[in-house]
Specification:
Blueprint (H helix, E strand, L loop, with lengths): L11 E4 L2 H5 L7 E6 L32 H18 E11 L4 H10 L3 E10 L15 E8 L10 H7 L8 E4 L23 H11 L5 E4 L6 H8 L3 E6 L2 H12 L23 H6 L8 E3 L6 E4 L5 E3 L2 E3 L1 H9 L6 H4 L1 E2 L10 E2 L1 H10 L5
Parallel strand pairs: 1-8, 2-3, 2-7, 4-6, 7-8
Antiparallel strand pairs: 3-5, 4-5, 9-10, 10-11, 11-12, 13-14
Length: 369
């Protein structure tokens, strides 16, 4: 008999192997997977600074694999689990360094994932290359992928643009590494986790590719950065972690965070994600009446509204987009921003885009446009 999967353990950190844990989740049940897997750094010997102090690198047992084949098999197994639990339009993020990210990317593609972007996290304060034998490793790579090429994942494009002062967000992100009060410490003052990621990085990932209430799985939870940011942004998380010490730190950290809600976690919505409203709906609702005039932005061109939501000019009739393009002799036109209506006083100086009326319809549908 096949074991029935358990219900989602929302907002829980589960001590144990991520593969065993994800195998307990139902098929196609989560919105996003964010994975910060072992990098398999293959470090050998101690590393010292010029003053002979020892660099606290990644020497933990969980980052060691006997062979590349062993690492590839490990990667294949956890990615296979992640693929099963993702919803059809869900997505996965994986972060890594040059030691592992190319192998992970190849296995992602072998399993049928479709890579949508690779993001370069450029560190403003990277660790120097003390030996002087190679370039300072000042970046890490994130891969954003979906289960299929035709998937339609969440992408809050306009929110990212808003975060970037109105300029389209690029694929190179300049952010500092985790330092100061954000760095989780042991009782002796040393780092609790050698590769703790900054909350700013996860804030950008979760804000761009999830919505409030979405479920985010982190198979390698560490000291809980994914969970901390998810809770602040009103998302649910499920974390898996094999090291009990990390789990203790993560639980203490996340318990101290207030869950984000209400206006605080709303973002600028992308127009593509808003429900479609046809111009005819404005006519049906009496926001625009048959026979009303629509105007070009400068008021020089007019069109008449018809009962079926089409508009007419002396030599043509059709949709607001088709006629907008026609009168401008342009290949295309966004009729919502081109055509305007007049205020009740009828003055041309008070023309307003009809897109304002569309926003009113969306508002009545419970959607903030």
């Amino acid at each position: 008999m096949t074991k029935k999967p358990n219900a989602l353990p929302l907002n829980q950190i589960i001590l144990g192997d991520c593969i065993d844990g994800m195998n307990q989740l139902p098929d196609e049940s989560v919105d996003l997977v964010f994975a910060d897997p072992p990098y398999n750094l293959q470090l050998g010997g101690n590393l010292n600074r010029p003053d002979n102090s020892v660099v606290n690198g990644v020497t933990e047992e969980w980052d060691r694999f006997d062979t590349m084949d062993a690492y590839d098999l490990f990667t294949h197994d956890w990615l296979n689990c992640a693929r099963r639990i993702l919803k059809p339009n869900g997505a996965i993020w994986v972060i890594g360094s040059y030691h592992n990210i190319f192998r992970v990317g190849g296995i992602l593609q072998d399993q049928g994932f479709w890579i949508r972007n690779d993001i370069i996290w450029r560190k403003t304060n990277p660790m120097p290359n003390f030996r002087g034998t190679r370039f300072t490793n000042a970046h890490e790579t994130l891969i954003w992928a979906t289960k299929t090429e035709d998937a339609r994942p969440t992408f809050n494009y306009d929110a990212m643009k808003m975060m970037n002062d109105g300029v389209q967000m690029r694929s190179d992100w300049t952010l500092p590494i985790c330092t100061g009060k954000e760095r989780i410490k042991k009782s002796d003052g040393s780092k609790a986790h050698p590769t703790q990621k900054p909350e700013a990085l996860l804030h950008r990932v979760l804000l761009s590719t999830t919505n409030p209430g979405d479920v985010v799985v982190d198979p390698f939870f560490g000291v809980g950065t994914t969970g901390a940011v998810a809770k602040k942004l009103g998302r649910h998380f499920i974390g898996y972690e094999r090291e009990e010490e990390y789990v203790i730190h993560a639980r203490r950290r996340i318990e101290a965070i207030k869950t984000g809600s209400g206006e605080a976690i709303k973002v600028t919505q992308s127009k593509k994600s808003l429900p479609r409203v046809a111009f005819g709906v404005l006519v049906e609702r009496g926001l625009v009446n048959p026979g009303d005039k629509l105007y070009s932005p400068d008021g020089r061109i007019t069109a008449r509204v018809r009962a079926d939501g089409s508009i007419a000019v002396p030599d043509a009739a059709g949709s607001i987009h088709k006629i907008g393009a026609h009168v401008q002799k342009a290949p295309a036109c966004n009729g919502w921003t081109f055509w305007h209506y007049s205020q009740p006083n009828g003055r041309i100086s008070s023309l307003i885009p009809i897109d304002v009326l569309r926003a009113k319809v969306r508002e009545s549908m419970g959607v903030l446009a």
